[in-house]
Specification:
The protein has five helices and no strands. By secondary structure, it is mainly alpha-helical. The protein has one domain. Helix 2 runs antiparallel to helix 3 and helix 2 runs parallel beside helix 4.
Length: 78
Amino acid sequence: MLTELIAYGILIGIYFLPFIIAIIRSIKNSMSVFFLNLFLGWTVIGYFVLLFYASLTDAKSGESVGSFITKKKKKKRK
């Protein structure tokens, strides 16, 4: 019973890792990272996009997740 609770806690922590990183880095859009992680984190692409967004954006910038993704796509096309 206790080991199952610990395992579920670890899995939930891994699932919300982008949000935890956003909170630690004090990103302005941390609540949007939380809700996007809650609803799109189950997709592999959504999870990794949020993980990269939380870890690569400047903590002081107010850049949204959508503009971050489009900026990264434009850099790849050049």
